[in-house]
Design goal:
Elements (H helix, E strand, L loop, with lengths): L1 H9 L10 H31 L4 H29 L1 H18 L3 H4 L1 H29 L5 H30 L1 H15 L23 H33 L6 H9 L4 H16 L3 H19 L5 H33 L2 H29 L2 H15 L14
Helix pairs in contact: 1-2, 2-6, 2-7, 2-8, 2-9, 3-4, 3-6, 3-14, 4-6, 4-8, 6-14, 7-8, 7-10, 7-11, 7-13, 9-13, 9-14, 9-15, 11-13, 12-13, 12-15, 13-14, 14-15
Length: about 400
């Protein structure tokens, strides 16, 4: 049903495709379902652990371990993608994600054992999925209109990301967070099904070969992607911890519904930004968009340090959605072009996956060190200011696409 709807809405605008539109529609639907499940539980994992009396220092170092674990997992993930193709590995990653949901509800009883198993399964799933998605989309996109395609993909992502925290939050409030985990597991299993109506978009049984890899034209983007990893940790985890510990401290299970609602109020901003930025990228304005969005994103991180009320949270989230959408779409378009030009698509995207997780791990490690030295609230506020300067590196790559 969803795929038919997408065909009716978008196919007439995609007559210029090299790949069939079916391949893109499948990817739209699969990613939307996956993100719906992921966002339903991602916002609440840290809150759930806080309610189980894990402190901020522990959580910072836990997330550092989580992201660091994904770095060595990237190599076997890349080998598997090269051998069987991104669609098959997407299915495997969704099975792993569903399996991870088995362990999280047992954290109150089994503590670190259950948390460690959740970490292994969820981190492996996330690493495998992220690489599979990048390889798949970078292959089936259209070169001339990739900005428009990324805009459509981003719109579907934002709809899923906007609705799911509200649903997940109210489910957690009414029925408990364990129910959300069960629903998410079911959605993870369903998310890979749309992909198998067409074949693999890439050649299978490939080997990863670094010989002749264009380090000179890619190293800046790899450094910048490390800063993207820091930004991912700030927005997805540190900000959630700040809301739970400072803005909504002591709210009990109501906190799930409140944070879920506040995480979703940015939906309209995200939709408008995705459409507008997609047009800018296709009109060769990606470089300006990347710089302006990065400056705005860093300014917003400084703003976070001074937020004290729900109104401040809403204002920050709306601005952050516009900034993050802008830099991520411009950066990803340049990254896909680099992957195409490198002749080493899977190798380059493997390196991208490694450094983004390195950046997230370093960001979590920095938070852990800061809150060891300062009280929780002061440490979080200082961390946001430090992250603002680090994330300026996002605008440093010299993508060839934006120099033509």
């Amino acid at each position: 049903m969803f795929q038919t709807l997408i065909h009716r809405l978008l196919q007439r605008r995609h007559f210029w495709r090299y790949a069939t539109f079916t391949e893109v529609a499948e990817l739209y639907i699969s990613r939307t379902m996956r993100l719906f499940a992921l966002r339903m539980i991602a916002v609440f994992t840290s809150i759930y652990l806080l309610q189980e009396h894990y402190g901020l220092v522990f959580l910072a170092f836990f997330w550092a371990v989580f992201y660091a674990f994904k770095i060595p997992v990237a190599w076997p993930s890349a080998l598997l993608i090269a051998r069987v193709g991104p669609k098959h590995t997407t299915f495997i990653s969704n099975v792993l994600a569903a399996a991870s949901m088995i362990f999280l509800p047992f954290v109150p009883e089994y503590g670190l054992w259950a948390l460690g198993l959740w970490c292994v399964f969820q981190a492996s799933s996330a690493c495998l999925y992220d690489m599979s998605y990048l390889v798949d989309f970078s292959k089936v996109k259209n070169i001339e209109h990739a900005g428009k395609e990324m805009a459509y993909m981003n719109i579907f992502e934002k709809v899923a990301s906007g609705i799911s925290p509200v649903i997940g939050g109210f489910l957690a409030f009414w029925a408990g967070p364990e129910v959300v985990m069960v629903v998410a597991a079911a959605l993870f299993l369903l998310a890979a099904a749309p992909l198998f109506k067409s074949g693999e978009p890439t050649r299978t049984h490939q080997k990863l070969d670094f010989s002749g890899f264009p380090w000179r034209t890619t190293w800046r983007s790899l450094v910048a992607e490390t800063a993207v990893g820091v930004d991912v940790f700030v927005t997805a985890t540190a900000w959630t911890l700040f809301m739970a510990l400072v803005v909504f401290a002591g709210d009990g299970n109501e906190i799930y519904a409140k944070i879920g609602l506040l995480s979703s109020v940015t939906l309209l901003t995200a939709l408008l930004a995705s459409y507008t930025f997609g047009k800018l990228i296709d009109h060769r304005r990606g470089r300006e968009l990347l710089k302006a969005s990065t400056y705005l994103n860093s300014f917003i991180h400084i703003m976070r340090a001074f937020v004290t009320t729900p109104v401040g949270v809403i204002f920050t989230n709306v601005l952050n959605e516009a900034a993050t959408t802008g830099y991520s779409m411009a950066f990803t378009r340049g990254m896909f072009d680099t992957a195409d030009a490198s002749g080493k698509r899977v190798v380059y995207l493997f390196l991208i996956e490694m450094v983004v997780n390195l950046g997230a791990a370093l960001g979590a490690l920095l938070l852990g060190v800061v809150v060891l030295l300062l009280p929780d609230e002061a440490g979080l506020r200082l961390f946001f200011i430090l992250a603002a300067f680090i994330t300026l590196l996002i605008m440093t790559p010299r993508f060839m696409l934006y120099r033509r």
